[in-house]
Amino acid sequence: MLILDCKNEDHLIKCKEIIRKGGIIVYPTDTIYGLGCDPYNKKAVEKVFKIKERLMDKPLPILTFDIRYVEKILFLDIIGRKLADYFWPGPLTIIGNLIDDKIPKILTAGKKTVGLRIPNNTDTLNLLKYCNFLAGTSANISNENSCITAKEVMNSKLDGYDAILIGDDNKPKNPFSFNGSTIVDISTHNLQIIRHGVIKSETIYKILYQFK
Question: What is d(CA 196, CA 200) in angstroms, rounded to the nearest whole number?
């Protein structure tokens, strides 16, 4: 397992190579540390499920750095566009209708929907500019505590990944970071809040009504 530094460009390039070859990395986000791979690589996605001991009926979200890349995979309707314009980059995952049939079914748990977000973290965004997309989930064994620092990840039971990319773990975090991103579903063209995370539901509704 390699220990790499987000501030080192050569290390970011190394992460890109690992991901391109089907490897698995741990990386920082604006909420918790994530476990990720190339979302288009079926075998790599399978590895993420195995490492995390994640149930196969729970889909994985995808991270990217630009809304143009989001729209290659996910259909953003009016509601989704308003939320994306206001909250991205940020801790909001938007689930919508999948429009790229190259995404393996294992990633979406066989559903015709997929979740994406653009994280508000310079280190993560720099990494994503090299690899475009990362299938991401929290870097912990399922049902165990999420990790906010690289040290917590390395001291946890999580094992089997190829590299850990260390970010600025001394930077203050939102106290709700352990909850992960807030997840909303717009696939039926109505807003449904799936998980309450960093962003409060009342804030989301306020923004939607504000822009009407």
Answer: 7
Mean local confidence (pLDDT), 177-194: 88
Domains of the chain: 2-210 (3.90.870.10)
Q: What does the alpha-carbon distance between residue 205 and residue 13 come to, in Å, rounded to a whole number?
A: 40
pLDDT at residue 185 in the model: 97
Q: What is the pLDDT of residue 211?
A: 55
- What is each CA distance from 187 to 98, 108, 111, 158, 190, in whole angstroms? 9, 13, 11, 33, 7
**Are 112 and 97 a contacting pair, CB within 8 Å?**
yes
